[in-house]
Amino acid sequence: MTEQAPKLTMAPQAAGAHPGYMPGFGNDFETEALPDALPQGMNSPQKCNYGLYGEQLSGTAFTAPSHQNERTWCYRIRPSVKHTRRFDKIDLPYWISAPHVDPDVISLGQYRWDPVPHADTPLTWLTGMRTMTTAGDVNTQVGMAAHIYLVTESMVDDYFYSADSELLVVPQEGRLRFCTELGVIEVEPQEIAILPRGLVYRVEVQEGPCRGFVCENYGQKFALPGRGPIGANCMANRRDFKTPVAAFEDREVPSTVTVKWAGQFHRTRIGHSPLDVVAWHGNYAPCKYDLRTYCPVGAILFDHPDPSIFTVLTAPSGVEGTANIDFVLFRDRWMVAEDTFRPPWYHKNVMSELMGNIHGIYDAKPKGFVPGGLSLHNMMLPHGPDKGAFEGASNADLKPEKLADTMSFMFETRFPQHLTRFAAQEAPLQDDYIDCWADLEKKFNGTPGVK
Ligand SMILES: O=C(O)Cc1cc(O)ccc1O
Ligand SMILES: [Fe+2]
Question: NCBIfam families this protein is in (predicted)?
């Protein structure tokens, strides 16, 4: 059989629109790659135009309150059910789901890793996923997993979806293309992508090698945080999220679909590309976001506020104000606070903090936390600036200072994060990380007024 190159037919774009994308977060979008493919005024006509099949993808329970209810109507060449034959279980031993507590691994501790190096073997989105931590329980749909991806090869005639989770993708190196049922998303470092639970896609390498971080959210979807008294603008603005226009393939080639379901991987064979949605409308869709459009709001006179001011997205846990996951961004910004120790304070947090460095230097850890690297400060474990950062910030001349060329982030969850065996034994763990606090000396002088 001769190999057919994937040919995507894409919806035309509105004048001035960002090529291939529609602006907004959680909008009711509509898009069609062929004229009149989308039924108007109804979802289920007796016969759809072009001989398409109508199919609903539900992202929330049918009965979810209407302000949270998410679903999308797809008009596709074949219904998805045609795609499934019997499933075989397959092994992806480095992609692990909670609950997963390895008896030989100690998760209690402050941990830091150098960037996980690329392998000498080619790796795809599926074979290159390396789970670092898991939290909660995939079966009860609470918690998360944090992964590193190392991808050098495109998926070819191989498709994937996760029934377990929504994926938040944070590239650090290289450029990826997500060809999804609902359209195409391309991302590079300093951008993110969100892939909803149940959405089928394949991942192509646009420029490799590719490395990045993934937060696999088992729980309720990521949403924008309420801004409270900040008002209607700043932080992440809705229009900066971009959802792809409809794009479909009409390709008949032997293909596979891999499904992550209840922590296990299953594969089935099909005879065509499942990316055959010609038109769709709804509010359950993938999107991308450029982190450089995040507008940070911070201290303009004194003190260091809680890092929640930098929340890009929050995934609720059911307990108001206590997130299943917060995605928090530490980007370049001005530091102007007077008479203030400006870096993060020393602290112990009820939530567990997994951080990744996308680019540059992070102020609390001027050495050792490098781009591509990660750190974990688990639930109720003390941490804070290293000795160098403490001495530097305690004695700095407090003029306005630009923290330039820096971008780190945090996946913060209310659940303890458990290290995988890969994180504890194979990944480049820095054994001497806790020594960064060892030289903090006693400065207490017992004399009032002497600082
Ligand atoms: O620990 C960290 O570096 C992350 C962090 C940053 C900050 O500004 C305040 C609290 C916090 O946990
Ligand atoms: Fe912290």
Answer: hmgA
